[in-house]
């Protein structure tokens, strides 16, 4: 990184004081506080008692999203007013890069958890291996397979059968999402989802090259297609969840397979929705307001980084959750 | 909307809507000080209950809440934000930047904290009480067996984590992008280096912690079984994830402290820091190694022996780069021309006591010996030596060192020295005996203990009370300096101090380096 | 200034010196300042390891602080020195990277052998399953000789001592109603697990500390060389009464052990016989009162008036359908202090205490529960 020249420094823009941050903090706090209350009502609450948890949550969320909207709008306006120096843009780029890095670490945890339970805990529970010498005593009859169709608890006759370490009621599924249980490859949804998401990464790339060539029509078209592909992905994912709950008996309660499956795909799906929204906003900016030029399109670039990141995560997910 | 030529706004909006790195830094510092008082008063409850055997003041469940919140608030509310505050104040001034790279986000990072910690503290008054499962919140005590307030705790951790991540991203962007011309990486002050590396650590591990609490949330409310064997999960999985965060976390706490000491010792030795390059490499090695040692907190969970050996060797290795740092500091002092103002006294106190804490850390790293030390007061002694006499002493030194620059007034030196001597002595009275009771078999996190531990516990409590009270002296000294200290106007407050921050006016103007300095 | 520096050095060295003095006073056994070497060979090796690394640290510390204090004393501005300007030397950097590294290797070798030793579970002569409960321990003998021998081990210190209304006894907080008994000179393998949250089984003098993880079994072992009573505590935060779940191990001669296990066997056989038997109301009431006072009174009050738990007198459950009452007694009330006693009391005792609750404190229900009813309820 080369040090800046002093002329770049002169242009450095220190924003006036701003109420955005305080509003964002308030909105974030209220929405999470509300969410915590909603969950506590659900788990510990008395259903006959009315609470205002949902109201707090939704108001907080709305306020938070509105603030974010305003925040980005301000930033975009400043940029279009020519206030952002090259240095400032680089700060934004660095910020986005390290933010994505932190997201990578977030996914890293869930993947690690998956590897840990698949490769170590499962065998241990059935009494195999270095760490699990005697566990057979606790879970007689439990045999480890992945996907774990029968949880240790079920192997022993269910939650009520014996008092040890039953921190819940874990009923396994009839059918998993793994490739091994698909009736035919072309009926296997995850494969189509992979194709869709990977192609959407390609279309975003095409859009980018269109923009670099100052071809706004190409840009708008291919970015629009990318957003559409993202929506199809989310819809198919929803369909998959519906299938899981309605026909496969695969739920969050289905022991560790269900836990890791929904955690990974759900968290990923959430990120797809965020990424898709980001792309959609860029598309609207371009189509409706004529933003972006070959030189100046950081908003789009950041969104596309995010989209590629989401895509890479999916490929790993496809590999480790569905295929292997 | 020119950014230049305007001073601070008047009234409350100056703080609520701040974008200035100095104002935000100031808020961080005051916030962390108030959290220090809160966390410290919880420690006083702990020490008061442990003054004598038998239950006197609080019931066991409340005691556990005190232990938990003391640890949480000190780590996440006091020490971490205090160093972020310091970073906000000093990094732009040290690298010749006009402000932080992302000023509005900077304010967001800060304003997330007060409501978060208010919420955490308010859990004490909720039904079933606040978090009572230790600052390490091992499942399933923190999931199936926790009070409903655990949900608020979880979201509190999410928010504190978000704040840290944004704070660190800001620091990374500032250091990588905003250095004055000529300020190459290898010319940056050590404090900037240690913070840059700390920020990388934070961005890497705070999401890991967020992942851990998210899985807890799922287990509690949505029926998953990550931490339950009955469904094919494992409570130990939680510990692996927690410590993958937790061990780097302790270096997140200590690295900026190393940075501060690396500024102060040369200043008062009137001699450049010895081995600057090796200091940078040592810091980076500590950070890298910190990702490979997490399971030294879990020697007794029943890992396969190969794992134990790996983590033992990796942990022992950390003594090498840390030793390099200690030796470099001592050599910096060697043949200098030293004076012993308050910042230097605290830095020397740090050097001695941190090294002792490091030694006990090294003892703990020996897996078979740790079977005897683990979860005893020996561990409590270890980490208070590195965290209180390490991180906190360093923070104290930093405040005395830079306060004159911040407010243009000189603190009362006699009072400062008195503060140091009382702190130094009472700290040792409070925490040295904990080594003894720990070795003799006193477990940690207990509200009551067997009779043979009585004498040392009483000693420890007395030391703790004195230590706590002496911090009031610090608070008093700082406030009276700000309000009525002797005004000074020399740019360079300390004869031997080097660095860009000493080239600007005293007190530091609202905007520094509107035109960048040229660094040779 | 000068005086202060000296004071500083005296102060830092004094703890080290005190420590050295205390250690050298031969206070090796039952020391209140140091790790007990204990009564096992492994424990003594660990103790040796601990002392080695301690001394290494003391010596390194003396050198480092020595140099530092020398410098503080001689290189101070008030003595008129001017500062040198040297600030680099690759040679010394390499030296003080290598020396600590070599020291660490010297420590790592014995540490590794000791660790491998601790992990050698082969040839155990006796297996004991240890299960942690909130807040007590259960011991189960797994070999043939000890078949069916299992019992709970509860804190015996009375509340009055804890709450300071009575003076504290010698083994305050470190005493239990029924200690674990193991033979001397025998390699005993402990299989450690937990029923609810994580606990840790720690007896310093046996050099054993192992986490008890719910749903998993951890192995560890000990071989005591000396007969005696050894005390320890739960070492993992496990909730409210974590500080009140002590461990007492009686190491006895092999003969005594054989005798003890024989008597436990007989006791167990007796219970087994009783399980198949029907009792009269009087018999059940008498036995039930004993069980109630031991296991329930702490929460439900000596006269069923309630306390931490609901009142039993006139309780809707104790005066309601039998099945509901059995359910609470056997499976507890999840999420409350009312635990599942089904795994803790044998069927005879459970039958007796339920009968007692239904017929004492003015609850004159008149019905009685037989062990077979408890057995059937457990079967579902
Ligand atoms: C600021 C925080 C901080 C720092 C810097 C450290 C530093 C170290 N810690 Fe510490 N530690 C904690 C905070 C910290 N720790 C906390 C909070 C806990 C408890 C958490 C909980 O359970 O609640 C803990 C617990 C803990 C454990 C687990 C104990 C247990 O629960 O059983 C272990 C085990 O290995 C350990 C080891 C170390 C080591 C090897 C270092 C090393 O980095 C130290 C290196 C330094 C030196 C060694 C001194 C200087 C070196 C020389 C002079 C060179 C020459 C020396 C020799 C070769 C002897 N620590
Ligand atoms: C950086 C972090 C940090 C800091 C600064 C401290 C500071 C102190 N800690 Fe800390 N401590 C932890 C981190 C920290 N601790 C952690 C992580 C744990 C583990 C928690 C767990 O097990 O989960 C722990 C656990 C812990 C225990 C063990 C509890 C247990 O196992 O049950 C004890 C016991 O003595 C203790 C004592 C103290 C004391 C006396 C101070 C003192 O230094 C505090 C001094 C400060 C003040 C007192 C506040 C300022 C002054 C006033 C408010 C004036 C009023 C004062 C009086 C009336 C005297 N701490
Ligand atoms: Cu059981 Cu602590
Ligand atoms: Cu650690």
Properties at a glance:
heterotrimer; A: 324 residues; mainly alpha; Four Helix Bundle (Hemerythrin (Met), subunit A); 9 helices; 68% helix; 0% strand; disordered N terminus; B: 520 residues; Cytochrome C Oxidase, Chain A; two-stranded antiparallel sheet; globular; binds heme-A; binds dinuclear copper ion; binds copper (II) ion; Cyt_c_oxase_su3_dom (chain A); transmembrane (chain A); membrane (chain A); EC 7.1.1.9 (chain A); Cyt_c/ubiquinol_Oxase_su3 (chain A)
Brief rundown of the structure:
The complex is a heterotrimer of chains A (324), B (520) and C (380). With 324 residues, chain A is mainly α. Chain A is 68% helix and 0% strand.
The CATH H-level superfamily of chain B is Cytochrome c oxidase-like, subunit I domain
Q: Biggest interface in this structure?
A: B-C, 98 and 98 residues
* Uncertain runs of chain B: 1-5
Amino- and carboxy-terminal Cα gap of chain A: 41 Å
What can you tell me about this protein's structure?
Chain A: This is cytochrome-c oxidase. The complex is a heterotrimer of chains A (324), B (520) and C (380). Chain A is mainly alpha-helical. A two-stranded antiparallel ribbon of chain B has the order 1-2. Chain B has a single domain, classed as Cytochrome c oxidase-like, subunit I domain (Cytochrome C Oxidase, Chain A). Chain B is an all-alpha fold. Chain C is an alpha+beta fold. Chain C has 3 domains: 105 residues, no CATH class; 133 residues, Immunoglobulin-like; 105 residues, Orthogonal Bundle (Cytochrome Bc1 Complex, Chain D, domain 2), CATH 1.10.760.10. Chain C is 43% helix and 15% strand. The N and C termini of chain C lie far apart (81 Å). Chains in contact: A-B, A-C, B-C. The interface between B and C is large, with 98 and 98 residues. The site of dinuclear copper ion has 9 residues of chain C, from loops.
Layout of strands and helices, then pairs:
The complex is a heterotrimer of chains A (324), B (520) and C (380).
Chain A: H1 6-10, H2 20-44, H3 53-80, H4 86-125, H5 152-155, H6 189-212, H7 216-248, H8 255-289, H9 298-323
Helix pairs in contact in A: 2-3, 4-8, 4-9, 6-7, 6-9, 7-8, 8-9
Chain B: H1 13-16, H2 21-49, H3 60-95, H4 103-122, H5 150-177, H6 190-221, H7 235-269, H8 276-289, H9 305-317, H10 319-333, H11 342-365, H12 367-373, H13 377-407, E1 409-410, H14 413-439, H15 454-484, E2 486-487
Antiparallel strand pairs in B: 1-2
Helix pairs in contact in B: 2-3, 2-4, 2-15, 3-5, 3-7, 3-13, 4-5, 5-6, 6-7, 6-8, 7-10, 7-11, 7-13, 8-10, 10-11, 11-13, 11-14, 13-14, 14-15
Chain C: H1 2-24, H2 41-74, H3 90-118, E1 126-133, E2 136-141, E3 150-153, H4 159-162, E4 180-183, E5 188-194, E6 199-203, E7 208-212, E8 218-222, E9 228-234, E10 246-252, H5 254-275, H6 281-300, H7 322-331, H8 347-359, H9 371-379
Parallel strand pairs in C: 1-5, 4-10
Antiparallel strand pairs in C: 1-2, 2-3, 5-8, 6-7, 6-9, 9-10
Helix pairs in contact in C: 1-2, 2-3, 6-8, 8-9
Bound molecules: heme-A (2 copies), dinuclear copper ion and copper (II) ion.
Residues 247, 250, 296-297 of chain B line the site of copper (II) ion.
């Amino acid at each position: 990184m080369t040090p800046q020249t002093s002329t770049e420094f002169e242009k450095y823009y220190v924003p006036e004081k701003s109420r955005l941050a305080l509003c964002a903090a308030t909105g974030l706090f209220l929405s999470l506080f509300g969410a915590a209350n909603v969950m506590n009502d659900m788990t510990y609450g008395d259903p006959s008692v009315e609470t205002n948890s949902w109201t707090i949550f939704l108001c907080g969320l709305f306020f938070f999203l509105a603030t974010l909207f305003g925040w980005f709008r301000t930033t975009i306006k400043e940029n279009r007013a020519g206030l952002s120096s090259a240095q400032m843009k680089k700060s934004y780029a660095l910020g986005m890069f390290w933010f994505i890095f932190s997201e990578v670490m977030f996914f890293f945890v869930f993947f690690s958890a998956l590897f840990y339970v698949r490769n170590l805990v499962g065998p241990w529970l059935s009494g195999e291996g270095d760490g699990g010498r005697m566990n057979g005593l606790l879970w007689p009859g439990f045999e480890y397979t992945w996907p774990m169709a029968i949880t240790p608890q079920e192997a022993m006759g269910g939650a009520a059968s014996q008092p040890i370490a039953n921190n819940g009621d874990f009923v396994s599924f009839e059918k998993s999402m793994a490739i091994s249980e698909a009736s035919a490859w072309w009926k296997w949804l995850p494969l189509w989802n992979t194709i869709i998401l990977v192609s959407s990464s390609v279309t975003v790339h095409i859009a980018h090259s269109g923009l670099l060539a100052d071809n706004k029509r190409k840009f708008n078209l291919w970015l629009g297609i990318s957003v559409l592909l993202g929506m199809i992905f989310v819809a198919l994912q929803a369909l998959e969840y519906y299938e899981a709950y309605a026909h496969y008996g695969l739920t969050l309660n289905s022991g560790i397979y269900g836990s890791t499956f929904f955690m990974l795909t759900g968290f990923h799906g959430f990120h797809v929705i965020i990424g898709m929204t980001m792309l959609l906003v860029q598309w609207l900016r371009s189509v409706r307001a004529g933003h972006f030029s070959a030189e100046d399109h950081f908003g789009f670039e950041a969104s596309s980084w995010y989209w590629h990141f989401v895509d890479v995560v999916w490929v790993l997910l496809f590999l480790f959750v569905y295929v292997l | 909307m020119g950014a230049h030529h305007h001073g601070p706004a008047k009234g409350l909006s100056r703080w609520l809507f701040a974008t200035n790195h100095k104002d935000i830094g100031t808020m961080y510092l005051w916030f962390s000080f108030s959290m220090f008082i809160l966390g410290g008063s919880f420690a006083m409850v702990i020490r008061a209950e442990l003054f004598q055997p038998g239950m006197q003041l609080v019931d066991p469940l409340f005691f556990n809440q005190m232990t938990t919140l003391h640890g949480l608030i000190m780590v996440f509310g006091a020490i971490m934000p205090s160093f972020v505050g310091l970073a906000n104040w000093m990094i732009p001034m040290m690298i010749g930047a006009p402000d932080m790279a992302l000023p509005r986000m900077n304010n967001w990072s800060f304003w997330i904290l007060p409501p978060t910690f208010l919420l955490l503290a308010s859990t004490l008054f909720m039904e079933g009480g606040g978090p009572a499962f230790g600052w390490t919140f091992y499942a399933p005590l923190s999931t199936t067996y926790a009070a409903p307030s655990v949900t608020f705790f979880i979201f509190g951790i999410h928010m504190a984590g978000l704040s840290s991540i944004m704070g660190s991203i800001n620091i990374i962007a500032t250091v990588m992008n905003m250095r004055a011309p000529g300020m190459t990486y290898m010319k940056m002050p050590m404090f900037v280096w240690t913070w840059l590396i700390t920020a990388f650590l934070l961005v890497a591990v705070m999401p890991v912690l967020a992942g851990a609490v998210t899985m807890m949330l799922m287990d509690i409310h949505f029926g998953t079984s990550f931490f339950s064997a009955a469904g094919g999960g494992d409570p130990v999985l939680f510990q692996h994830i927690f410590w993958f965060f937790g061990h780097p976390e302790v270096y997140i706490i200590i690295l900026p402290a190393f940075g501060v000491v690396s500024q102060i010792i040369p200043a008062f030795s009137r001699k450049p820091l010895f081995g600057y390059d090796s200091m940078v490499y040592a810091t980076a090695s500590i950070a890298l190694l910190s990702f490979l040692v997490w399971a030294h907190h879990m020697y007794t969970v029943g890992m396969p022996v190969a794992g134990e050996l790996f983590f033992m060797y990796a942990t022992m290795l950390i003594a090498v780069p840390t030793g390099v740092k200690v030796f470099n500091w001592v050599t910096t002092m060697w043949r200098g021309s030293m004076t012993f103002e308050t910042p230097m006294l605290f830095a020397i106190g740090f050097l001695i006591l941190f090294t002792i804490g490091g030694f006990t850390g090294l003892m703990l790293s020996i897996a078979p010996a740790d079977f005897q030390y683990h979860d005893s007061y020996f561990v409590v002694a270890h980490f208070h030596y590195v965290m209180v006499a390490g991180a906190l002493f360093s923070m104290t030194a930093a405040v005395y060192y830079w306060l004159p620059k911040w407010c243009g007034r000189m603190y009362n030196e006699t009072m400062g020295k008195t503060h140091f001597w009382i702190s130094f002595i009472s700290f040792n009275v409070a925490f040295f005996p904990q080594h003894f009771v720990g070795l003799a078999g006193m477990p940690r996190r207990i509200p009551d203990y067997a009779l043979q531990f009585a004498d040392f516990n009483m000693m420890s409590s007395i030391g703790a009370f004195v230590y706590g009270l002496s911090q009031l002296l610090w608070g008093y000294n700082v406030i009276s300096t700000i309000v009525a200290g002797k005004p000074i106007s020399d740019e360079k407050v300390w004869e031997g101090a080097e660095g860009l921050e000493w080239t600007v006016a005293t007190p530091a103007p609202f905007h520094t380096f509107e035109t960048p300095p040229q660094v040779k | 200034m000068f005086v202060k520096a000296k004071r500083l050095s005296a102060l830092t060295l004094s703890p080290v010196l005190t420590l050295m003095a205390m250690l050298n006073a031969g206070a090796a056994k039952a020391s209140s300042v140091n790790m007990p070497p204990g009564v096992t060979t492994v424990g003594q090796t660990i103790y040796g390891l601990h002392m080695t690394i301690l001394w290494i640290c003391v010596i390194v510390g003396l050198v480092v602080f020595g140099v530092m204090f020398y410098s503080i004393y001689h290189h101070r501005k008030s003595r008129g020195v001017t500062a040198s300007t040297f600030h680099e030397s690759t040679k010394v950097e390499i030296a003080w990277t290598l020396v600590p590294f070599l020291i660490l290797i010297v420590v790592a070798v014995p540490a590794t052998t000791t660790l491998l030793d601790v992990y050698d579970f082969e040839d155990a002569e006796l297996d004991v399953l240890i299960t942690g409960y909130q807040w007590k321990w259960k011991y189960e003998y797994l070999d043939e000789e000890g078949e069916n021998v299992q019992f709970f081990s509860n804190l015996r210190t009375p509340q009055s001592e804890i709450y300071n209304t009575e003076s504290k006894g010698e083994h305050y907080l470190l005493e239990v109603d029924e200690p674990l008994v193991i033979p001397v000179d025998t390699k005993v393998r402990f299989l450690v697990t937990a029923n609810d949250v994580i606990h840790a089984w720690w007896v310093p003098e046996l050099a054993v500390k192992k986490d008890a993880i719910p749903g998993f079994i951890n192995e560890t072992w000990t071989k005591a060389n000396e007969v005696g009573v050894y005390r320890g505590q739960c070492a993992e935060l496990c909730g409210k009464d974590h500080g009140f779940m002590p461990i007492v191990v009686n190491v006895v001669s092999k003969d005594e052990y054989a005798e003890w296990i024989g008597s436990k066997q007989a006791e167990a056989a007796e219970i087994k016989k009783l399980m198949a038997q029907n009792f009269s109301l009087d018999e059940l009431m008498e036995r039930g009162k004993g069980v109630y006072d031991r296991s329930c009174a702490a929460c439900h009050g000596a006269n069923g008036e309630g306390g931490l738990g609901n009142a039993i007198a006139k309780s809707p459950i104790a005066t309601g359908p039998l099945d509901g009452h059995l359910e609470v007694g056997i499976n507890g009330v999840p999420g409350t202090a009312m635990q599942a006693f089904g795994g803790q009391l044998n069927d005879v005792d459970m039958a007796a205490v339920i009968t007692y609750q239904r017929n004492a404190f003015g609850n004159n229900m008149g019905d009685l529960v037989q062990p077979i009813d408890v057995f059937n309820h457990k079967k579902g």
